[in-house]
Write a structure and sequence with these properties.
single chain; Alpha-Beta Plaits; Rossmann fold; 29 helices; 14 strands; globular
Length: 638
């Protein structure tokens, strides 16, 4: 009798137990007991999500789902529900594709790819193909990470592979995965902090500036993933080895360098190191230039590195790497000294930074980066509420205009212009600005991060996630990048995930104001008043200190009375806290006062106002004609 075959589109899920074969050899009874535990865990979770338990193959399980979403949901619950016996042991692979049923057998690429993805997954992990990713991404229910384009056994073309990154799940990149990457090309790189060969700490500002500049230059290469300086600085004077750092930053290789400056002559010694499949020194060279030719030095290094790792350059990138530029040596040194002082984030540092930047302009009024840095300086002053919008805007605009007149493609200048448009509620111009930033520098962390926020605020959440995920991928140890990601998760209703991200950010920098606010915003809708109070206490005791014992007020008088008093005290010296005062009055039940402060936030171009408008917390205000009118003026639908 001829067997009837039929084809259908299905999500195939394979699972197995890491270390089962070894356990079977050493303790057969324990291995058989583990199989029973595995079956009792997985079978109901697969069937409860509409899956069909197809077969067991030793310690492996194959199941099919009509929905990729339900397959991933089932896989997540399997990993989250695994008890002590199976914790961090189950590997899961999922692929959505055409399969063929013949009787009780099942065939096709959907089966093969799912099986191979399971085999390369880390124990405790869930790996899936791009077809699955496309099916689940817009839901916003899963935290995912890109693993790479894997060359899987017996699969002809590389498979773009992703993994779940929920709490407790393993990191996506390992040496085992690297062996599977298509072509094993070097596609990601980190430039470690430079050594100061002079031994003179007074020269550290220059060495750090050289490090920052080389990262900036190589970040312009669109086919390379380049880790941001914030994360690489965490490895200054580290005792960790190359393989461990590569694992933590998820990179294929490194650039190490040392700098020696004698008067206006600079020597930089560079070496390129491969991290996978084993640590290997690929190349080394030294470069000598005068400071006036410092940009030629940077481009020479980038040219040689990209040549050694066979990076495919665009025609525009080739042109940029062939151009020759000069700079006034004293102007350049003042520019680097200004950046060094600015990064201290202290009152004295801000004063000195401005003096150095202005000195740099006086010495060379054709140096575009210093104008962009001045614009960035005033933008930061606005964001930190240290200068008013009316005072800062002309300075931001004029400096950016000068920078772009000299270099229209300068990423930092376009970034400030995109933020300027944001402050002016011109979302179309801001959108264009961020796109221009990312065209010039696709590895621009804040460009990716804040563009994701713009997409989120303008009802394009499904488009926002790839940009915010890239920002974190480029700068995984940057507390600000993590906080920006947490904000997107909060606005997407993923409050528990946002809280986990906030905890990671706080572990890096407990004083980050955005992280503290993120934790508070995510906790309040969850009804976690204790955490809300704790975060408010940290903000208004340390960052913006005012005369209130928040914890005591909450304990003695309750939450509403506490936020009412907090808002009333902030009214006396708002320091750019307009939208937060509105939010606190709204929580206190004083809607009229809240609306008055929303109107003031609009007048003062409070950049945080659109975020409040997009929260459920503001729902009770959205019917008021005054709020509707403001929403219309800032061009955001309620």
């Amino acid at each position: 009798m001829k067997t009837t075959s039929r084809k259908k589109l299905a999500a195939i899920m394979f699972t197995d137990i890491a270390g089962y074969t070894a356990l079977m050899g050493s303790n057969e009874s324990a291995a058989m007991e583990l199989l029973k535990v595995n079956r009792s865990l997985q079978k109901p979770l697969i069937e409860n999500h509409g899956g069909i338990w197809l077969k067991e193959m030793g310690d492996g399980v194959m199941a099919s789902f009509d929905s990729a979403y339900m397959a991933v949901k089932s896989a997540l619950e399997i990993q989250e529900s695994a008890g002590e016996e199976l914790k961090s042991m189950i590997r899961i692979g999922i692929h959505l594709g055409d399969i063929t049923f013949e009787g009780e057998d099942i065939f096709g690429d959907g089966v093969n790819i799912a099986s191979r993805l399971e085999s390369v997954a880390n124990p405790g992990g869930v790996y899936f193909s791009e077809s699955v990713m496309k099916a689940i991404h817009s839901t916003g229910d899963f935290i995912t990470a890109f693993v790479g384009s894997l060359q899987l056994k017996n699969v002809e073309a590389p498979v773009k592979t992703y993994c779940l990154q929920h709490k407790g799940m393993p990191a996506p990149v390992s040496s085992k995965i690297k062996h599977q990457l298509a072509g094993s090309k070097m596609e990601s790189i980190a430039i470690l902090p430079f050594d100061n060969l002079s031994g003179n700490p007074d020269q550290q500002y220059f060495v750090d500036g050289m490090h920052d500049a080389l990262i900036g230059e190589i970040s312009k290469i669109s086919s390379l993933r380049v880790i941001s300086r914030t994360s690489t600085l965490r490895y200054r004077n580290t005792e960790k080895g190359i393989p461990q750092i590569a694992e933590e930053l998820h990179v294929d290789g490194f650039i190490e360098a040392s700098v020696l400056k004698v008067e206006d002559q600079v020597r930089i010694q560079v070496q390129l190191i491969q991290a996978y499949p084993e640590e290997k020194h690929l190349w080394a060279d030294s470069y000598d230039k005068k400071i006036e030719n410092i940009f030629d030095l940077h481009t020479a290094v980038v040219r040689d590195v990209t040549d050694k790792i066979k990076v495919q350059l665009t025609s525009k990138e080739k042109t940029q790497l062939s151009e020759s530029k000069t700079v006034d040596p004293e102007s350049y040194k003042a520019y680097l000294a200004g950046k060094h002082e600015f990064e201290k984030l202290s009152e004295e540092g801000f004063i000195k930074a401005l003096e150095y930047f202005e000195k740099s302009v006086e010495l060379d009024d054709t140096f575009a980066p210093v104008y962009a840095e001045l614009a960035n300086y005033y933008m930061f002053m606005v964001q930190m509420r240290l200068i008013s919008v009316p005072d800062a805007f002309p300075k931001i605009y004029n400096n950016n205009r000068k920078a772009l007149e000299i270099n229209p493609d300068l990423a930092e200048a376009n970034y400030s212009m995109a933020l300027m448009s944001w402050f002016e509620w011109d979302w179309v111009a801001s959108d264009k600005g961020f796109k221009k930033v990312l065209q010039s520098n696709p590895n621009h962390v804040l460009g990716n991060g804040f563009y994701a926020h713009l997409l989120m605020l303008t009802d394009r959440m499904d488009q926002a996630f790839p940009y915010i995920e890239k920002a974190v991928d480029l700068d995984p140890l940057n507390d600000l990048a993590l906080a920006l990601y947490g904000v997107v998760l909060t606005h997407n209703g993923q409050l528990d995930e946002a809280i986990e991200i906030a905890k990671k950010s706080m572990a890096i920098n407990p004083q980050n104001i955005l992280t503290l606010r993120l934790m508070e915003f995510a906790s309040y809708p969850n009804g976690d008043m204790e955490t809300s109070v704790q975060m408010l206490d940290l903000v208004y005791s340390n960052v913006f200190p005012i005369d209130i014992d928040i914890k005591r007020e909450y304990s003695e008088n309750g939450y509403k009375a506490m936020v009412d008093k907090l808002a009333t005290l902030l009214e006396q010296n708002s320091k750019g806290q307009d939208i937060y005062i509105a939010m606190f009055f709204n929580r206190a039940g004083k809607q009229e006062k809240a609306i008055q402060w929303i109107e003031r936030a609009f007048e003062n171009h409070d950049a945080d106002m659109p975020y409040f408008f997009r929260t459920k917390e503001a729902e009770n205000l959205k019917a008021d004609p005054r709020v509707v009118d403001i929403a219309r003026k800032i061009k955001l639908p309620l």
